[in-house]
UniProtKB/TrEMBL annotation:
Family assignment from sequence similarity: Belongs to the threonine aldolase family.
GO biological process: glycine biosynthetic process; L-threonine catabolic process
Name the record gives this protein: Aromatic amino acid beta-eliminating lyase/threonine aldolase domain-containing protein
Organism whose genome encodes this protein: Apiospora kogelbergensis
Co-factor(s): pyridoxal 5'-phosphate
Keyword Lyase carried by entry: yes
One Pfam family, short name: Beta_elim_lyase
Keywords (A to Z) from UniProt: Lyase, Pyridoxal phosphate
GO MF annotation, one: L-allo-threonine aldolase activity
Amino acid sequence: MSEPVEFYWGNAHLTGASCDFRSDAITTPSLGTLHAISKATLNDDVYGEDETTRHFEEHIARICGKEAAAFVVSGTMANQLSLCALAQAPCSILADATAHIIHFEAGGVANLSGATVHPVRPSNGHYLTLEDIQKHAAVGPVALERCPVTIVSLENTAHGNVIPLHELRAIKAWTDGQGIAVHIDGARIWHAVAGGGGSLKDLAACCDAMTLCFGKGLAAPIGAAVVGAASLVRRVKQLRQSIGGGVRKVGPMAAAAWQAVLDSFGPGSVDVRGVLRSTHDTARGLAEMWTSLGGKFLRRVETNLIWLDLKDIGVEKAAFNDLACRHKVRVRAPRIVVHPQISPDALYRLGLVFHEVMASKLDIHGSGSDGIASKL
């Protein structure tokens, strides 16, 4: 007989999150979150009548220093609704060439906003700077055959790297002068704050629309938000309805997200819980282990993401993943994501993977019968 569903709440071992380094989106909701769901109101949010949802949106807008917020079901939806609300045809969106909105949102920019994407490789290898944007955005009179950049989209953190607050402020000051809107994909904005990148209010002041995800690292079962001016948020909610994102009895989802924020971040604009900062410490510990074995990185380790340079040691991603499975941990190489529910045993097992890979330094091509699992 299977265990009751309630047993899974707050049990990262049972769900597998405790040994899963693939993403912080797999974190397991707590028993406190389940309790918050049970106390949520159940009125109609499409009509704007659900108290829990309305109060949560007001709270998120307040701690971000913005006029309004809209609760949506996912970070991808939040990003796409933000961009669509900001887009003015003809529209080109300048973004990091590795951005989530380009590679992991199923072509939503083209499908929903009718915009073209202007991908740019950051000159510093980590995040877009004002210099990058000035170099690639169409400034002044634009030739008739060019599609003008009307939106700059930034990720913070950018694959684990915090964009400095002074850089964000410089970008916003310049784009304001050019009539260009700024969107921040804040899926891990909580980590940017915990990593010393400024308060939520500081960061939200540097853009016209910012998204926040409640599932990545915070362990909400569902949900994200868009914050911005009241007129923008109204447009976002209208667009949300047009794609079927207007949920009627959304109160339990909003309650769960609110509890996750309180548990993992706190009630205000700055991190007071220290939960996310602890994952940064853990990531630095893993990074030190990797470098002590002779390993290198693709990016600086600043928050909870580690990017291993596997090409440097001649190991393919599939082979590394295969070896990790043998040691009963899950990874999506070359990225290692640390979240608050990773267990000490999982860290130990990942350490074994590091040692085994670096001890062999084999030139591996593939996985399975031809990979590291059969050669070590």
